[in-house]
Amino acid sequence: MSRMELASCSSESLVCEDAPNPCKARGAQVNRQLISSDPVNIEDSSNDSLTEEQKKALESVLEALRSGDRDKVLRLFLKDQARNLFPENEHTLKWLVGTIGKAAATRLVVALATLPCFNCKSGLLECDNCNDGGRLENEFVCESCLGLGRIPCDFCGGTGLASVDFIPLGLRLAVFAVRIQNAEKRLLRLIQLPMPSAQSAVRAFHKRADLLFALNREISVLETAVGVTRDYVNAPRNLKGRITRIANEAVRIARKSEKRLTATVKAMLGASSLSIDSYPKGSNAHKLAVARTNFLGALLDSDPQFKGTYLEHKLLNETAEKLFSKKTRKAKKIEEKRYRN
Ligand SMILES: [Zn+2]
Ligand SMILES: [Zn+2]
To answer: Picking from 131-135, 185-189, 250-254, which range would have the lowest pLDDT averaged per residue?
Structure first.
């Protein structure tokens, strides 16, 4: 495969720009490349057009990459782009593959894809509305955090990962494609986990709430990826297919995972309902358990489900609806054509 062909693929098919080389089949090979730590020698690069300044800048980025300092990788990369040493457009990835090689370019993309948000821990912040207690005046559930005391971080959309504004423009599609793959892997594991149980209903409730946050975080990763594809309204033609694939993949995985999200809230409702009896009647804890049970029931009954809360992923839902109506229109056209013939 030539350098130019390699340039159109980074980690897997989602990152692949052009269809002729199905990267899916090379999954295992690609994974090895993701963890490869082979040093890259810029001097040996087949691209002789690099200036000394560019070579030096690339070497610094690779050094930071090798030492695992993801913050530094991003800082250096953005600084060098600002100095026009690296291209800042849809050709950035191709250029990188051509200069530092596919394995190193992939490692760079993966480093940026996993860079944490500087504002939160794993996508969550304490709820200011209730001072993380989950309740107001002892009897009312805090609607901001759904009574759980924590809310998704606004800065990163609850993903716990560096927000899109920090990711270099020319690498965004590749970075978010990797994030989708990572989210899918984690979601598959979360979906297969048995529903957390415990000897006490209160404990079971909290364990299920942790599962809910974990699921919601990954679904938020998928939603931010769809958000990124929306920014490419005037994308060049050769990128359109790749953008559509990324959005479709995010929606497909999210739909599957949202069922588990609903099941988890139902299980939390069950635990909350059982916990009522563990408190003396008339106590604040008893009143709160009743309020929480009613609140969760209303959340599940709302239309759309979880309406107006951080569990409602509007952008994903809208995109899923568009996809569905597009598919229906296509099927209708085929049916009409068949009828006419
Ligand atoms: Zn709150
Ligand atoms: Zn954050």
So the answer is: 131-135
pTM for the structure as a whole: 0.82
Q: Which residues surround ligand 1, an ion (CB under 5 A)?
A: 127, 129-130, 142, 144-145
Mean pLDDT of the chain: 83
Alpha-carbon distance of 281 to 290, in angstroms, equals 10
Q: Which of 90, 154, 92 is nearest to 117 (CA)?
A: 154
Q: pLDDT at residue 79 above 70?
A: yes
Closest ligand to the CA of 156: 2
Which ligand is the nearest neighbour of the Cα of 131? 1
- Rounded CA gap, 44 and 32, in Å? 22
Measured between alpha carbons, how far is residue 33 from residues 2, 7, 30, 341 in Å?
Answer: 17, 15, 5, 51
Distance 81 CA to ligand 2 centre (A): 25
Alpha carbons 32 and 307: distance in angstroms, whole number? 43
Retrieve residue 339's tokens: 């009828």
Q: How far apart are CA 293 and CA 278, in angstroms?
A: 14
CA 340 to chain centre: 45
Which of the ligands is closest to the CA of residue 295? 1
Q: What percent of the chain has pLDDT over 90?
A: 60
Residue 7 has pLDDT above 50, yes or no: no
Rounded-to-integer distance, Cα 134 and Cα 128, Å = 10
Ligand nearest the Cα of residue 121 is: 2
How close is the Cα of 250 to the center of ligand 2, in Å?
20
